[in-house]
Amino acid sequence: MNRQPEIASALRELLPPHSILWRTEDTRPYECDGLMLYRQLPMIVVLPETEVEVAQVLRLCHARGVPVVPRGAGTGLSGGALPLGDGVLLSLAKLNRIIEVDPRARTATVQPGVRNLAISEAAAPHGLYYAPDPSSQIACTIGGNVAENSGGVHCLKYGLTVHNVLRVRGVTMEGDSVEFGSRAPDAPGLDLLAAIIGSEGMLAVTTEVTVRLVPRPRLARCIMASFADVGDAGDAVAALVAAGIIPAGLEMLDQAASRLVEPFANAGYDLAAAAVLLCESDGTPEEVAEEIEHMCAVLRAARATRIQVSDDEAERLRFWAGRKNAFPAAGRASPAYYCMDGTIPRKRLGEMLRTIQALEAKYGLRYPNVFHAGDGNLHPLILFDDGDPESVARAEAFGAEILERCIEIGGTITGEHGVGVEKLDQMCSQFDPSTREAFVAVKRAFDPAQLLNPGKVIPTLHRCAEYGRMRVSSGKLPFAELPRF
Amino acid sequence: MVANVSNQGAVTALREVICEAAAKRTPLRIRAGGTKDFYGNATTGSILDPRCYSGVLAYEPSELVVTACAGTPLAELENTLAEQGQMLAFEPPHFGRTATLGGCIAAGLAGPRRTAYGPCYGGVRDFVLGARMLDGRGDVLTFGGSVMKNVAGYDLARLLVGSLGVLGVILEVSVKVLPQPAAQLTLSFELEERESLDRLNAWAGQPLPLSASVWHEGVLSVRLSGSRAAVTDARGRLGGELMEASSADAFWVRVREQTHPFFAGVDVLWRVCVPSTLPALELRGMQLIEWGGALRWLRTSQSAGEVRAAAQQGGGHATLFRGEPGCDVFTPLPAPLMAFHKRLKSHFDPAGIFNPGRLYREL
Which of 4-43 (B) contact A at CB < 8 A? Predict the structure, then answer.
């Protein structure tokens, strides 16, 4: 039954006409997020402008049993904002005001549609910034960062979203306003703020976020080190940490990735090196000088073949520009790419890189690899042709096998991109049924009717049974036949 | 480096106790060393002691992660880390020699290093990466992991921090650890409360390696931790009087363990958490202020209502940390949040056997 006329007409009682989209040409831009493999037109898109409107929409949908999918900037890479054909897509894009920057308290209070980088820009005159810096920070919004617990290239030292958000205000599916956390430490009761952050929009719709701002270090310098072998580069990462150093940033690009981004970003990467390591130090000028010297010594001992230290801020930013432009560069080099997000213990990096190398031949697909080496968070970008169903199936099977290996060696299927719809199958492998039931219970505690972003993150028992059977019977998944939603 | 896991059968034994208690609906009071018996509302039940499950399960310094059983003595764990030049960055109070890791996580109390500033700041929850627990059905649940980043499923490991055992028995915890700072020193300033709060908040907005602060009776003490160069530079900028190193270490231990004279002979002690910029509380009594102004320990004869009202007006909350509770120990929750708590409790502990009432009467 098409409920579009009925729901649209009810929404018109609540919102001005320009805040409701239902024609296919208007809803088309919302059919996918950054994971373009999955597409679905929503029944209706709404763009509320206030928390009151958000609450009204949710109450209406709750009363009528209509599922709701919240969406920020749509840069997510796991399909967390994938619409439902019989659902309302709730865009938070118009809640985009910076409510307050309080330099003395080192906090900013913003609406969910404010872009990550805009917070740091607003705080800059006070010598402060918002630390988590996902590569998509010019576009992604803080509401989406809260949903995914986003990281970035500096989180080994400065933490993830969960470490930098003090308070989240939101609205439940039933339309109640609630606050999690507070401006004061250790808010009373269970730490529901931690549960909300990274909950992929399934527990409440974020309408306001208070973040912690930190003072900008006086100086930052970055080392670019080359290695003749990716395993050596992996060992160098462990050696740095073992030496008691917590770099401000510690990133790796393999040769395929450097060659991919260099023409695009002109970062000056060593294209002859099997791997390039970016290692940043920040602090006072004396502190940075001391630490850079220590880092260089460790890197040399770990068989770095070439070491270059940024001389000025422009050069440092150029080093990072290559890393941060890896995804757009992949988009230019291939019709489509599929970004993995597995995270493993640092000491298994070398081994994992060799494993993926072997899989490249098995699946016949290229995969430039960029990763947050300091966190053990890998982002192989599997290049494939989305116009060729067979290529799509191989890309998905390649990705799935990488994730299974991550679980086997004590890692996780997602470090910072979320499960969304993409990694539902691997959730069956990573978590036992009792733990998955606990996830369902948390979902029900916040959203008893299960109408808020349903079908994401937590696989059904049936789905896990199917997945288990297929893994046992063939050792390899016939992904094309699997029901996806 | 796998140490004495005294008894793998311990989990089975714990499970049996839980299942029996659940069947009979008789409460269990989860208690190891009993160092934090004073904390939280009164609870009842026969004692379930998780110390049978003890030992470090995995520790590799280059991973910056340690995984240990809940029954591991906190002192033993800290010694293991110190041998490798590392530490628990949230500097937890022990409140006695018998403190365990499980109790530390369940109480969720951090020490002086939980400053409101600096990159290595944090509370207990900021360093918990994963946990295993037994729920009220006797099922083992595994959340998070032992890697730095993990967004697979909801972050329920952190939910256990400060849960005071109301959701279940913590079995194992993976914690992010940090290298000990290369240099550390403490500076003192003779300053009144208002001036101290002003300075602390101004300093916190600058890139300074502040790792702890205490104001009490006209003296502000701040600790600097980090690289030698950063600590030397900051000392030059801040001024103040240098505290001798060994007495400085002892001083911070006294603050952390509440053996500082301020806490002596305490009958009623309030733990008032507020935004660090909140001006001096308008309450009678004595105070010791930590965390750059965000934690105000208060000894007062004023009523719970008055203390809570002052805290809440300032955007914070007040816990009756020590003393005979004539009121809820923790600030009551708004109705929608309490509804979430009750639903979570009913899933994790359907028979309502774990530490009934310790966190809130309703749980």
Answer: none
- Confirm if A309 and A292 have CB atoms less than 8 A apart: yes
Contacts of residue A234, defined as CB under 8 A and 6 or more positions apart, other chains included, come to A252, A346, A349, A350, A353, A373
HSE, CB side, 13 Å, CA atoms: give it for residue A102. Answer: 17
Sign of CA dihedral A243, A246, A249, A251: positive
C-alpha A141/C-alpha A164 separation (Å) is 15
Residues 6+ apart with CB under 8 A from B29: B43, B44, B45, B46, B47, B48, B355
Whose tokens are 């990763």? That residue is A371
Instruction: Quote the distance between the C-alpha of residue B199 and its chain's center.
Output: 26
pLDDT in tens, A58-88: 999 999 999 999 999 999 999 999 999 999 9
Q: What is the pLDDT of residues B142-196, one digit of tens each?
A: 999 999 899 999 999 999 999 999 999 999 999 999 999 999 999 999 999 999 9
**Chain A environment of B333 (Cβ under 8 Å):** 188-189
Three-state DSSP at B89 gives coil
Cα A440 versus chain centre, distance? 22
What's the Cα-to-Cα distance from B138 to each of A431, A438, B9, B160, B334, rounded to whole Å? 17, 13, 14, 17, 31
User: pTM of the full predicted structure?
Assistant: 0.95
CA distance A427 to A35: 18
Six token digits for residue A221: 């310098």
Closest by CA position to A330, among listed A379, A273, A393, A271: A379
**Phi-psi category of A198—alpha, beta or left, where left has phi over 0 and alpha has psi -120 to 50?**
left
ipTM for the assembly = 0.96
Residue of A nearest to B339 (CA): A445
Query: Nearest CA to A34 among A73, A69, A68, A67?
Result: A73
| Chain B interface disruption, residue of A176, A190, A419, most B CBs within 10 A | A190
Instruction: Specify the 3-state DSSP secondary structure of A13.
Output: coil
> What is the SS3 assignment for A226?
strand
Give the whole-angstrom CA distance, residue A245 versus residue B226: 11
Round the CA-based radius of gyration of chain B to a whole number and report it: 21
What is the predicted pLDDT for the residue at A152?
Answer: 86
B62 interaction partners in chain A (CB closer than 8 Å): 238-239, 241-242, 346-347
Task: Provide the shortest C-alpha distance from residue A306 to chain B (in Å).
Answer: 24
Determine the Cα–Cα distance for residues A54 and A52; give it in Å rounded to an integer: 5
Distance, CA of B125 to CA of B288 (rounded, Å) = 24
Paired with B46 in beta bridges are B28
The contacts of residue A250 (CB under 8 Å, 6+ apart) are A156, A237, A240, A277, A278, A279, A280, A372, A373, A374
Q: Is A418 helix (H, G, I), strand (E, B) or coil?
A: coil
**What pLDDT digit, counting tens, does each position of A97-134 carry?**
999 999 999 999 999 999 999 999 999 999 999 999 99
Alpha carbons A68 and A48: distance in angstroms, whole number: 13
CA distances from B301 to B270, B307, B330 (A): 10, 10, 18
